[in-house]
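Show me any protein, keeping tokens residue-aligned.
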Amino acid sequence: MHEKERHRIILSAVQEKPVVTVQEMVELTDSSEATIRRDIAALHVQKRLRRVRGGAEAISPPQFIGLAGRPFSVNETLNAAQKRAIAREAVNLCKDGEPIIINGGTTTFQMVHFLTGRRMPIFTNSFPIAEHLLKHSKNTVMLSGGTIYREQNIILSPFDNDVTRNFYARRMFMGAQGLGPLGLMEGDPLLIQAEQKLIDQADELVVLVDSSKFRMRSSLILCGLSRIATVITDDGIEDREAKMLETAGVALVVARKQSSDKEESSLQA
């Protein structure tokens, strides 16, 4: 990742939380601790943030506390061809007329391109997904209520009495920060709370993750492998990871990139 992009992510992160640790920045940028410390020092000298012990804070305290994790705009550019192939396989599981839930995320967002010709009731907490489907499809779209988190382009509500409880889905499609033996992992407690409500409304949970997510971890577990019906990933998955899913009784779909995915990825880059 280029220095300019790292600096953008770091500055965005300190505006979202009171203090961001060096380790959190390492995970957000996939950079070394030494690189992050140099970035913090440079941005401190430029008076764009304030260096503190173990991390950094904004010069002006954030007025609104956001979610942990990379911004949507950054995640969207990572493994783009794999995400598009995974999304295609996800839509292949869908049948016209069946209600589905699409959780916000950059991999699930790619599903919109393959849903344009479908007619389905779709519930989502993603403003970009809802907007695209409204403009480019005849699907019936229901959007959750709550606060819009701009960096992640997601709508979340901490309240139990929202519209989520009134929607039934045959399947829920979602991504995750990580996937391991203990299950699905996320990076923010509010995400966990909101996504658990959505999962409860679906018969089956389908997880869309590129193979890099099998090597990523978080301190927060959303659900165990036993709750997952199907995992769709790319051909970078390792044998031991496939075995882990098989042992847990989780169906595995390996998405193969097509030439159109690669061309689309290069255009986005």
Q: What stands out?
A: The mean pLDDT is 86. DSSP finds ten helices and 15 strands in the chain. The radius of gyration is 19 Å.
